[in-house]
Every structure is written in C-alpha cells, then in structure tokens.
Amino acid sequence: MADKLPTRYEELKAQVNFHNYRYHVLDAPIISDLEYDRLLNELKKIETDHPNWITSDSPTQRAGARPADRFEKIRHPAAILSLANAFGADDARAWLERVKKLDDRVEKANFVVEPKIDGLSVVLHYRDGMFVQGATRGDGEVGEDITSNLRTIRAIPLKIPVNSEQSSVISVPKNLVVRGEAFIPIKEFDELNKKLEEAGEKTYLNPRNTAAGSLRQLDPQLTASRPLTLLVYQIVHSEGGKTPTSQWEILEYLKALGFPVADVAKRFNDLESAIAYTETWNEGRDKLAYEADGMVIKIDDLNLAADLGFVGKDPRGAIAFKFPAREVTTTLNDIGVAVGRTGVLTPYAMLEPVEIGGVVVERATLHNFDFIAEKDIRVGDRVLVKRAGEVIPYVIGPVVDARSGKEKTYKPPTKCPACGQAVEHFEGEVAWYCVNAACPAQLLRNIEHFVSRGAMDIVGLGYKIVEQLIEEGLVKDVADLFTLTKEQLLELEGFADKKAENLLKSLEQAKAQSLNRLIAALGIHGVGEVTAGDLARAFGDLSALSKASTEELQLIEGLGPNIAESIVDWFSQSANQKVLKKLKAAGVDPKMQKAEIRMQNGALSGFTFVVTGTLPTLSRDGVKEFIESYGGKVIDSVSKKTSYLVLGENPGSKFEKAKSLGVKVIDEAELRKLAA
Question: How does DSSP assign 563-601, residue by residue?
C-alpha cells in the first residue's frame, strides 16, 4: 500500500494541474466543480498525512506561502525590453521603411500581430520543466522576485508540458525563461470593485494598477484573493533544448506547453494586412476581455529581428501600434450641477480640456454626490478620466499623489441651481432632488420627455421649439401643449403656416395615444415604459390610478414599495392634479377597455420577451404594445430568465447570446400563436 501512495500522489498533482489549465487557461473545463474539489481534497489529505512528499509543483503550493520580509532582486538572463511606439498607420509604415534599409530580407518578411495588454510584465523561469522562479520586469535588467505571488496565478503552469501526453512529442529545454503580461480581466475587475464597494472598502482606479499592486503584496494570500491571470508571448532564454525561430511558431509552442496565449494573435504576409487587422481592434477593443492600449506588430523571423538590433533599448524588429488613449489625467477646474426632468441633481466635472480617443473632452460625469465623497474628489485635483467607445466620459477618481494642498473639498448644493429652491435627499437613495414642480430646468426636460418617441411621440416638438414655447410663456406645463393655437405658433421665430399646421396635427394625433404611453409620459419617478403598461392594464384609466393606495399598487407583480409610494405622492400633488384636469379638458384622457386589461390572466402573463431584428408586420413599438396587451413584458437584454427571444431579419448579438443561454427563439407567427 505504501508503495502505491507516491504514484497516486503524482497522479493527483498532474490531474489537478491539468484541470486548472482547462479551467483557467482554456476556459473549457471537462469536469464539474464537485469532481475537481474531490480530487483536490484527496491531494490535500495525502499531503497532510505525508508532508515530506510535498513538491513545489503541487497545486496546493499556489497560495498561503509565508509572507516575504522583502523582495529579492533577480537579474534577467537577457534584457526585458520595451518597444518603440507607432501612433497610426503612417508611423508603422515609416518603421518598416527604416528597417528595410538595414536588411534586404525585411522586404519579404511575414508579420505577427498580438495585443499590447495593459498589465504588468513578468518573467517566469523553468528548470527541467518545473516553475522555479518569477520576477517583475523591473528596469529591464533586474526585477523583483515575486515567485510566491506568481504561484497563486492559476493560469501559470507549475510544470510543463501541462498535458503529460505531450512529454514524448514536445521538447522542453532544461532551462526555459518566458515573458508574459499579468493582468486582471475587465469583468473580474468590475466584480472586485463591486464587492469592495458593498463591503465599504476602498475601490481601485483601473485593472492595470490593481494587478501591479496585487503582485507586489508581501503576503501571497492577499495576491491569491485577486482575480489575476496572464498571457505569455516570448521566450527570453532557453538552453538544453530546441525552440522555434519564428514568433508565430513560438506562440504555438508556448500554447502546446500549456501556457495561456492570446487567441487574437494573427500572422500576415505583408505589413498592410497587419495594419488593417490592427486598426479593426482600435474600434473593437471593447470585445477583448482585458484592457489593451494597442497591438504589437512583430517581424515573424526571430533571427532577422535579432540581426536588426536595437535603437537605444527598443528592438528594431517590432513596433507597438498604440490605440488613442481612453484614460487620461487632467485638472478638475470645478464641479457643476445639472437638473434632470424628475428633479434629480447630477454633478458633472468641468475639466481642463483634454483629448481622449480623438475627442476633446471638457466635461465628464461624476455620477452622484456620494461618489464624489467616497472617492474624496476635490476641486483642483488631478483626476483620471475615461472615455470608452460612445460612452459619456466619466471621472474614475483623483490622483492623490499629485495633490499640492490647494485642492478644495466639495460640498453638495443646498439649493437648486436652476430655481434657487431648497433641495431634498430621500432616505435610502443616492439622489438629491429639486421638488419644485415649476422649476424651469425640469419643465424643459419634462416636456422633452412627454413628447419623446417612447412616450406621447409628438413629431415636430424638438428641444429648440420647446425652449421657445417656455421662453414666450406659452407653455407652463405639458397640458398647455394641447391648447396652443396657430396664431400663437406663427408669432414664434422659424414658424410659417405649414410648420404650424403640422405641429398642431401632431398634437391632435397624440390625443389618441394609449393609456400606457400617457402614464409613461407623465414622468413619475420610477415609472418607465414597462411599469406604465402594468399600471394601465391594472387600472384602466388615470382616474382609477390616481385613487390607488400603495397597498393596491404593490399587488402588481414586480412593483415595490418605493415606486408605489412615488406614484401615490405624484398623484397627491395639487399641481399634478391640475395638469391632469387640463389634459382631460383638452381631450387627453385615454382609457383601456376591459377586454384589453389582461394583466393577470393574459395569454402572455408571466413571460418576458426580448426582440431582435426586423419583424414582418410589427414595428419595434408595435410588437412591444402587442406583447404587453396580452400581459407579457418586454426587456432590453437577454438573460437566463428571459422566456422567449422574438427573432426578425438581420438580428443583432442578442440572437447569439440567446442560443448560448438556451433561451427559446420564436418568430412573429409563433408569438401570435402564443397570444391566441
């Protein structure tokens, strides 16, 4: 029995390491979590009974090592170099022209493109296939010994090749040193910050700094608690074995050994193709699981690349094609406050103008006043600002180390900046409100919302016209829209007979809009299109809804006490009751017939739908109203809780997501059958 234990111990180590590789590197586990835990627990039991058997490649040695007193220094076997930058296609072409003059072979060279991950460079040492040491890049010549911390990263193989079946077909040098980039994936970073925020702890600014800080912890257990991973892309040194001489083959070789390698890397026959591929990631980098600040274009022939030599410390055989920056620092000159249509006060940053991703940014969102306080953002701070894709630029946080002592702590306003009335803060909410119904800032935005496509859909009432109507005193609330006359409109700048007639026609048509659209248009705090539909089906008209109690409202599925109270409060305001009377007098008083009220017993009640693509007969608004009229709900994004995806022509990414989650997909005809 004793003779068999070491064999079983070696088998368990190999199995657990292999399954770590399948899970953390390939994202393709082949056993369940329960089965994995059983193997790991059996391994731990053997090591507890026989501690003298424990070896450094055991997966149990990844975490929990004794904290180091300090980091030792490690001299790299070869220089760990940085790269020169190209800021566009012309820079990349200029690089190629320069190196062509040095060696004729460049003319026929192939190129490999890899992501330039915004993480921390690490150098991993293997001896006889065993991971023995790891270091930071440091100054390129000497790095910090962070071996214990690197062992906690499950994507790093402790023994190569990971798949023991490969041992006979792949050569592993006696000494092998590889380079990679350690990082925290964007999704995991967001989840980490969310957990820290919920626990009341300080959150991190960005994944790169978090990864670097995590790897420099003195206690490996703290490092192990961070969702670190890495991608490997270079052999720094090898001896006692044969390694490939092209960059593409190096990536294939590293992958075969069990190292994680970037799956978006590609090889090309010419530079123009490499540039074209690189530029696709400029717009598509949000599809990457990690932050990347560019792509690296490398000459595939490593012997040629080596012969080209260096310019200073930059190798001539590669160039970093940088993306436009999406995170920059600039000065926070002041904090302004905008007033929303529901009275919510939202702070925004007034910045020293700075270019981010090709756009000059002077303003950025600060989310809410709690965010300013939690991040301790001060006027005069150097702040980190991010703009990704079409997302509104936002402040991530202050650069505390850049403070001079002249910065000023910010205090939220006590009065509305638009009307001067006192603001209120409701318990349990982060928002601050101006509760003055006559606030001019709210009036403009209330009317904007009221006439919008998702509400009353009044064509011809844009922002500028609404502004004119308010400035001229013609409209003091939304009901005044329906009492406008042609004579009044003709007095406004830019109006002639045809334009005035068209607007009045749109207003007349709006009187026939459905009850749920009118409820959504009123701008009641917390009541969106879905809730408006539920309320319409439950009560049938505004008169009945206005008399509903919070208890009655909460009988509606999914409608909680906060929204119920908000609805009751809205209808209790005398100013709002006045608006409703004026609307009714103007002919805006839609009712839902009993045959239409199917909230609880409709054929689609209890089901949620997502719509993608163009349907044969129903418009996007039409299919939404159809589903809601039969008690169903329409939501924007697909999840496991989605009942059906309604599929039309030219669908978007929602179709693929629905298939991956196993959500049932139907067409318009099948939807109609469900409702029948």
Answer: HHHHHHHHHH-HHHHHHHHHHHHTT------GGG--TTT
Q: For residues 335 and 366, is the Cβ–Cβ distance under 8 A? A: yes
Residue pair 573/470 in contact (Cβ under 8 Å)? The answer is: no
Sign of CA dihedral 441, 376, 403, 190: negative
In Å, how far are 142, 155, 218 from 214, measured between CA atoms?
20, 16, 9
Question: What string of DSSP letters covers 389-435?
Answer: TTSPPEEEEE-GGG--S--EE----SB-TTT-PBEEE-TT-S-EEE-
Rounded to an integer, what distance in angstroms lies between the CA atom of residue 395 and that of residue 387?
9
Residue 464 a catalytic site member: no
Q: Which CA distances in Å does 588 have to 461, 518, 584, 585?
A: 17, 9, 5, 7
DSSP SS3 for 319:
strand
Residue-wise pLDDT for 48-60, tens only, equals: 888 888 887 788 7
Provide the pLDDT for residue 663: 92
Q: Which residues in the chain land under pLDDT 70?
A: 1-5, 22-37, 61-70, 166-168, 197-202, 312, 325, 341, 357-358, 388-391, 426-428, 435-438, 593-601
Structure tokens at 143: 């790095």
Pairing of strands 314-315, 310-311: antiparallel
Paired strand residues for 162:
none
How far apart are the C-alpha atoms of 484 and 582, rounded to whole Å? 13
The active-site residue out of 45, 101, 116, 313 is 116
Name residue, tokens 């830019």.
Answer: 494
- Cα dihedral value 29, 34, 39, 40, nearest 10: 90
Asked if residues 486 and 500 have their Cβ atoms less than 8 Å apart, the reply is yes
| Type of residue numbered 343 | G
Joined tokens for residue 297: 């274009």
Evaluate the omega torsion of the peptide bond into residue 161 and state whether it is cis, within 30 degrees of 0: yes
Instruction: Provide the pLDDT for residue 407.
Output: 94
Neighbour count for residue 468 (Cβ, 10 Å) = 17
Q: Quote the CA–CA distance of 13 and 16 in Å, as a whole number.
A: 5
Separation between Cα atoms, residue 434 and residue 341, nearest integer Å = 10
* Nearest residue to 305 via CA among 472, 464, 102: 102
CB 17 within 8 A of CB 162: yes
Closest Cα to residue 87, out of 276, 284, 295? 295
Q: How far apart are CA 394 and CA 389, in angstroms?
A: 12
* Residue appearing with tokens 């961070």: 226
Query: What is the value of pTM for the model shown?
Result: 0.53
DSSP for 263-293 reads TT-EEESSHHHHHHHHHHHHHHGGGSSS-EE
Q: How far apart are CA 126 and CA 497, in angstroms?
A: 83
- Distance CA(119)–CA(136), nearest Å, equals 11
CB 181 within 8 A of CB 122: yes
Residue 539: which of 525, 510, 559 has the closest Cα?
A: 559
* pLDDT for residue 502: 92
Which class for 99: exposed (0-12), middle (13-18), buried (19 or more C-beta within 10 A)?
A: buried
